[in-house]
Amino acid sequence: MPTAPPQPLLHSFAAPRDCLRASQEFVMSDQPESPSSSLPQNFVQLVAGLEFQPLKAAEDEARAKRLYRLRHSAAHLMAEAVLQVFPDAKVATGPAIENGFYYDFDLPRPLTPEDLEDIEKRMKKAAKRANRFEITEIPIADARRRFEATNQTYKVEVIDKIAETQKPATVTLYRQGAFCDLCAGPHVHNTVRLKHFKLLRSSGAYWRGDATRPMLQRIYGTAWENQEDLDAYLNFLEEAKKRNHKRLGEQLDLFHFHQEAPGAAFWTPRGFIVFQSLLTYWRELNVKRGYKEIFNPMLYKKDLYIKSGHYTHYKEDMFIIHQEETEYCLKPMNCPDTFLFYTSKRRSFRELPLRIAEGGILHRNELAGALNGLFRVRQFMQDDAHIFVTPEQVESEIFAVLDIVREVYGLFGLTYGFTLSTRPEKFMGEADVWVQAESDLKAALDKGGLAYAIDEGGGAFYGPKIDIKIDDCLGRKWQCATIQLDFQQPLNFDMKYTASDNTPQRPIVIHRAVFGSIERFIGVLLEHTGGALPTWMSPVQAIIVPISDKVLDYAFLLCKQATDMGIRAEVDDRNEKMGYKIREAEMKKTPFMLVVGEKEAADGTVSLRTYRDGQQPTTPAAEVLATIVQRIQTREFDVTITPLRTFDVEDESAAAEADEY
RNA sequence: GCCUACGUAGCUCAGUCGGUAGAGCACUUCCUUGGUAAGGAAGAGGUCACCGGUUCAAAUCCGGUCGUAGGCUCCA
Question: Given phi > 0 = left and psi -120 to 50 = alpha, else beta, which region is A303?
Fold first, then answer.
């Protein structure tokens, strides 16, 4: 049967207006309106050649610099206190970080929570002594000799690295009270400025982040300019804890973990509805955007992964099963088996772009210590797809995928950023092919007017990628969506299509996932919404609360009507008072609560209560049901997001300085 | 995998100096028939993560294993 020429799907769904709006936003943030446009002619000269920036940005930057200084100074103060307790401690590095500071130490024994209290008390005392921070500049060789003589071997190593990379003649030492440190500064003038800080926790940290180097003890602390900010930050940490998706998963009865299957979620009936609602949406999108879904096996002989390169480049992360003489692997990615689908028959250029989706269940052998609720699991489902394209189709397909990302994240009101990840150290293929792939991705991003960061060496071993990171309520970033360009696997799998001139050609593969891991995305969404999911995702969309069992018949009738209309509705027919039932429905964050008593039963109404807005006027039942159906069908994001105050004061220069000492 | 902490009822957590285990919620039964976030009573429920050691005696002290949390590292 001849294949119908593929529809040029791009024009049917591309949302030029949305693209334009997004690109304008990005452009606007980068290029503020020219100040000369509204100035009198004779003032144009005044501002010629000057760069202006919004006051707020300038103030934020000044504050960020002050906080950086404060926190870095607090780190020195902490080192002073630690040395009081452990005079033989070796100090490593102690930078200011986002929201606080840390310092790494090599100590004779592990720190206890009591130690932290003790150290914090000593810090407060030391701060009150009002010691000045003082600076001296000495030849680098002299500094090295001094630190070597005091057996501060980590500092010696830092100095050696500075000598090698920056080759300065001198370095600076800062001293306050009973502590002196190699440090580029700057610092506050006096320890009396350090008042509003708190030590948060201690943990292990490899020297230089290298697992082959010694494990040091790191103490984290936070420091602020005033008590109000400190309290607000500590409160933020408390609130963030309440929003933790593991806690919400328990409270809302969505999923569990069991030690018999570490790193794999067990979805409850309620939770699986949430999971399925995302999958249903994903499948609708696939149809709308011209994707076909396939369903492949989960277990493969290792030969597949030898061919794809995973066996060489990814074996550490794979679960491998030895069955008699044969070695099998649980699939860690969907790509290799999707490629088997592609090569299962001869392909024509008329089929391209061929968009193949697969929501495969993947297993990755993550390190035990890396597991973290739904955020880092060993088993997960990916809303994966592979697009097989001709070279001419690359840019428009990438652009179309970026448009899907915009649509999907827009649906959840999520903010996100792009990162272009380039060739890693371990890579397959030819370097110039990589250069081509990277420039194609750049072109698509630039064309969309999208701002992006570059992660040098962060690409997959088979190709460069655009990663999209979602911001969560804690200001953390989570990689969900990814778009990867692959020139390599078509070679490994000898993929071909017959071109219009009847010659065999090599397709290019675009890998893409938007949710990334369905599990992780649900985790992010739970924290983002505080567990109050939009109606279309809610396990129970409407709970009917009969006031007494005299109106049970009406309640069940309503429930049937609602169910017939496609609403997930339940009657709470337990022998409890309505206040109790409402409390339970509220705690489960049920979007619609339909309270019915004898009055409502008599005139076919419901007393409406919503999770978002509380008690509403009594309304005809049909009207309420119609509203709910509409919310579900349009997938309205009917949730009020109350973002936690973020304390994110990014300062690139501060971050760069923090790198070293 | 490494560092630190933790693991007591379905959930959240008490449990002192080593002396055979407790609360609230949830669950079951009964009473109660109610108007927008917890009505009352009774009952049932635990090999104190698991394995070993010390001890007359271990939830408690020691060792190991597994799991969890926060980091380090890695990554969707």
Answer: alpha
- Give the tens place of pLDDT for each residue, A385-411: 999 999 889 889 999 999 999 999 999
Place of tokens 């290792």: A302
Q: Phi/psi zone of residue A205: left (φ > 0), alpha (ψ -120 to 50 degrees), beta? A: beta
> Does nucleic acid strand B have an atom less than 7 angstroms from the CB of A334?
no
Nearest-angstrom CA–CA distance, A364 and A516? 14
Paired tokens of A566: 């496609």
> Nearest nucleotide by C1' from A469 CA?
B76
pLDDT band at A14 (very low <50, low <70, confident <90, very high): very low
CA A409/CA A404 separation, integer angstroms: 8
> Taking the alpha carbons of A354, A357, A360, A366 in that order, is the dihedral positive or negative?
positive
AA identity, residue A237: L
Beta bridge partners of A470: A416, A478
pLDDT tens for each residue of A81-123: 998 888 888 999 888 888 889 999 988 887 877 788 888 888 9
Would the Cβ of A613 be found within 7 angstroms of any atom in strand B? no
Chain A window 38-77, residues with Cβ within 7 A of nucleic strand B: none
High-pLDDT (> 70) share of chain A, % = 91
**Burial classification of residue A501, based on how many CB atoms lie within 10 Å of its CB (0-12 exposed, 13-18 middle, 19 or more buried):** exposed
